[in-house]
């Protein structure tokens, strides 16, 4: 006999909608054989007048004790899973009750109500834990905004968001079961011809939305991992906005720098990209120029540029870096930038921090270049 599998369109606890759906399929020639949490398997047969009912037991895998009595009344046992046990009858009509005592039906919902409640609290606990961990990372870290911009907290945020979606779903289940239990306790029977299509559409939209959220979250994580590269700094960097030593070294040093064969104790490029800062570059250059009868000249440059998606985030990053990296420095007014912060550590060691719109630039330089040359080079990037 031919079989068909169908996605269960509503939640299993929505008893009257599941029964209505099964009855509709049964009267169209699809008779239930078995089911799980997502799918139901049907046998193709001739259309027939049939009714489906579900018995819910208060404990998981607890079997109904009156199966034989129900068989004598025309209710054939079909399949069961966890709390749910499904029966079928060709003698019943749309008003037939498999369990006439509505109070007993209400009491039987205790198990699935407890399960929904436990799942709600478990996921709520994960959300709270994620928030606590995020708070510790954000507020106990030296530079929480920098951590956020660089994407170090993205994995936790994805976990919080996905757990929040599940928490809302289980809360919805808990409230729905509570409402159904209250209805039965008040003597209001279930509608065995309930309109299940609206509930099906809601479930579909919810699950598609949840899967989309998870997919996007993990896609962002994969993108972030893929975007993070640790590379040797190429000689030609005209395609990326980074400050190089040859852009700022004094003219008399350029020839020596170009001819130097002993390079790069450190010479690398880090690229990164996150949703909140799609442009991130960091470089480190250190070149040793040997000089006859003199100590080697070793200019060192660390440069980092971060472009955020909004100016307010860039401004917050600038303020944080200015407050954490610079011990003794001063703000300067430079026409090309919104804000500039300078710290002159020694005659040959300077740190710079600039803010322009959505972009923050950080410079740590040791060498003979003067401050105005460095600022001019930054303007020209």
Account of the 3D structure:
This protein has helices at 15-26, 67-72, 102-108, 110-140, 144-149, 154-185, 196-227, 245-248, 251-259, 311-325, 371-379, and strands spanning 3-7, 30-35, 39-44, 51-56, 76-81, 84-89, 229-232, 263-272, 279-287, 289-291, 294-297, 300-307, 330-332, 339-346, 349-356, 359-366. With 381 residues, it is of the alpha+beta class. The chain has three domains: 3-98, no CATH class; 110-226; 229-379, Protein Transport Mog1p, Chain A. The protein has an eight-stranded antiparallel beta sheet. A three-stranded antiparallel beta sheet has the order 1-3-2. Strand 2 and strand 3 form a beta hairpin. Helix 3 packs antiparallel against helix 6 (154-185). The mean pLDDT is 86.
Summing up helix and strand content along with how strands pair, one would put the structural category as alpha+beta
What series of H and E elements makes up the topology? EHEEEHEEHHHHHEHHEEEEEHEEEEH
Unreliable stretches: none
Number of domains: 3
Q: How many strands? A: 16
- What is the residue-averaged pLDDT? 86
Query: How much of the polypeptide forms β-strand, as a percent range?
Result: 25-35%
| Main β-sheet description | 8 strands, antiparallel
CATH class of the largest domain: Alpha Beta
Distance between the termini: 73 Å
Structure described in brief:
The protein has helices spanning 15-26, 67-72, 102-108, 110-140, 144-149, 154-185, 196-227, 245-248, 251-259, 311-325, 371-379, and strands spanning 3-7, 30-35, 39-44, 51-56, 76-81, 84-89, 229-232, 263-272, 279-287, 289-291, 294-297, 300-307, 330-332, 339-346, 349-356, 359-366. By secondary structure, the chain is α+β, with helices and mostly antiparallel strands. It has 3 domains: 3-98, no CATH class; 110-226; 229-379, 3-Layer(aba) Sandwich (Protein Transport Mog1p, Chain A).
